[in-house]
Amino acid sequence: MVYHLNNLSVSYADRAALQNVSCTIQEGKWISVIGHTGAGKSTFVKVLKGLIPDIAGEYLINDHPIPKDRKGQLKALPDIGYVFQYPEHQLFESTVYKELAFAPKLRGDTPQQIKKSIEIILSQVGLTEDILPLVPFQLSGGQKRRVAIASVLMMDPKLLILDEPTAGLDPVSHAALLQLLSKWQQQGNRTVIFVSHQMNDVAEYSDEVMVFHEGQLMGHYETGTLFLEQAELLEKLGLSLPEPVQMLKVVEEMSGEIIEVASCREQDIFAKVLPIWQARRL
Q1: How much is the pTM?
Q2: Which of 55, 51, 57 is nearest to 76 (CA)?
Q3: Strand pairing of 30-34 and 191-195?
Q4: What domains does the chain contain, in order, with CATH numbers?
Q5: Tens of pLDDT along 16-68?
Q6: β partners of residue 61
Q7: pLDDT exceeding 90 applies to what percent of the chain?
Q8: 122 to 68, 167, 192, 232: CA distances (angstroms)
């Protein structure tokens, strides 16, 4: 699925939340969306999901306009999954099984189909079937977050929107959740839109990054291009570089060398930086 927005604008009362945003989202990419609070990130992903009925501009999926209701307003798109911040706040069923089965039942899946889907999804989010009869609110914070995300994955979305999915998690749960989601995305060649303020996570997992500022899309870059070649844009907007890239810049400055790295992921940068650091005792 290819998603294309052309000159898209959204206004709330007298304030422009998005201004003439044009972009193309290709299938199979992990695309991060960054920018300060109020930059337009959440409005952008809500438009993608079809949660904002009134927009100006064009929104196409595979070159076809997205469906509208009789009033000409956008409708929520069922093939796009949306994980809000603190998604566990949306849990409402009495058991984990009922929570996971809720949406597939509405879709008309048979009990056998639901059982099979639950088995697959639990393994993908690192949970076991022992959790199914439990009350969601009795689970740990990390478990509740995984159950909430699993309930979205049960619908096998073609595109998954993650709006600060690790907010409030401890560092171990934070890292584990992103690794699981990355594996899920890669296994099915799925598309992920990842809204985050955590630049280290953006650098580690993203194929591409979209930069928003005051309702405008300032750029849509491959991750390495943004962090390694367009640092001045981030500085201008008051956005920080990922910590591994900051280390790379420091070592380059102190050693006088230009260091070529395969990507801006931590492992790739450290593999190049540490030998120089150690050899020169910087």
Answers
A1: 0.89
A2: 51
A3: parallel
A4: 1-78+196-235 (3.40.50.300), 242-282 (no CATH)
A5: 899 999 999 999 999 999 999 999 999 999 999 999 988 899 999 999 988 87
A6: 3, 64
A7: 60
A8: 34, 21, 19, 43
